[in-house]
Write the structure tokens for this entry.
Amino acid sequence: MVALTPRVLVTGARGQLGHDLVAAFSGKVPAGGRRRSLYGPSGPSPLAGVDVMGTDHAALPVDDRTAVLAAVEALRPHLIVHAAAYTAVDACETDPDRAFAVNALGTRHVAEAAARWGAHLVYISTDYVFDGRAEAPYREWDQPNPLSVYGRSKLGGERECPPGSTVVRTSWVCGAAGSNMVKTVLRLAAGDGKLQFVDDQRGSPTFTADLAAAVVTLGGDRRPGVYHVTNQGQTTWWGFARAVLSAAGGDPDRVHAIGTADLEPPRPAPRPANSVLDNAALRLAGLPLLPPWEDGLERLVSVLGAGEGIGVR
């Protein structure tokens, strides 16, 4: 009897995490990743000879049930990593129907397709499912209470995942592909403008090259339940911006701290003041934790500097 080649479908493959998920499942080291993965000596993928297909919204609009069912029927994947999402946090406030259509109903369609053809589902969720009012980091078993439309729509997606699925919550995501805070800080620092970042929102910066390796393991093992997966340690956006400049050889004192209430213009969507996620399920299961966020930042800045010729004053 010939063994079937494991097939993996990654939705949202053009996003920064989706891009690195496709690389990691293919056995490659994503840009900014560690040459020796925490999740195995031979690379980040525990699945040998994986056939990976990545789709974006143009190829597979997840809010279109017919398209999702047809695509999954054609591919018949063993594993679906659902990373596609409408992540424009402020825009979600003014277009909640789109947010829920993509993030909640779209997940229902993916979950239905996964169940119909026996694929294990991994859903990528967010720290925004919490209100940020707790003093301590949030554990997987804490009660969600999202403040924003984006957070509510992503929690809706979690609730569409059937028992046995894997839900991965993460925060402050940065990678070599796509837009993120690291690239924003470097772009602003290349000019003469004043750099201001809030110092009353704290979280754990998470780097897609590290996160992708953990998702590959959780998905490959078909581990059920909720996992918080972030790089270790915490900071504020002000502290993070200072660290980005330092890593790029710039002057961190150029970054000035302000409060969220001082942002001009004000942001439409409320942000949780405390976005720190305790990676308790990983830790208690004896699974490796991601490295400190400073380590991931150094690797990402090195990749961006080499690839784009970024200069910092």
Notes: Residues 96-116 form the longest helix (21 residues). The first strand starts at residue 7 and ends at 11.
